[in-house]
Design a protein that fits this description.
About 35% of the residues lie in helices and about 40% in strands. It contains 4 helices and 6 strands, in the order αααββαββββ. The protein has a 6-stranded mixed beta sheet.
């Protein structure tokens, strides 16, 4: 009888462990498919800063509009498409940049917002002007203009 009880207890433990593992995040699942709350412009800006400075990759694809473009003002100006920026950001894989970040809202309305994100690194400053739009209740970044000093 004791053997039968031990067998059932072991089977129950195995079943509970299996169900717990199955309910968890599947192996191989990556964070790019995660849904991020972008219901307000401030949440979208916070997520943008996390993506740019902390290497956050969850929800990076939903953060940018389909026609997103990035312009980099430097000695040789460069433009990057949405797919180029997303590809670059996914390669960061959680790399955190050591910088002090400041965000200022320059223009705000119900449908769009313009914000200035300043990142102070050791030796240089990156200023990023971003335009966000309300796209069906979700705020997305539609344009980014970067400059360096």
């Amino acid at each position: 009888m004791k053997t039968l009880v031990k067998t059932f207890a072991a089977a129950a433990l195995i079943a509970i462990t299996t169900f717990t593992m199955a309910a968890g995040k599947p192996a191989g699942d990556n964070s790019k498919k995660a849904v991020v709350n972008l219901s307000t412009a401030n949440l979208a800006i916070d997520h943008y800063v996390a993506v740019m400075t902390e290497g956050e990759s969850a929800g990076v694809e939903q953060l940018f509009t389909a026609d997103f473009n990035q312009k980099v003002q430097a000695p040789q100006d460069k433009a990057n498409s949405r797919s180029e920026v997303i590809s670059f950001l996914k390669k960061q894989k959680g790399e955190q940049l050591k910088c002090k970040t400041n965000t200022t809202i320059l223009e705000d309305s119900n449908d769009y917002m313009v914000a200035k994100v300043t990142q102070q690194f050791e030796g240089f400053t990156k200023t990023d002007l971003i335009t966000l739009i309300n796209d069906g209740g979700n705020w997305k970044v539609s344009q980014s203009i970067n400059s360096y000093k």
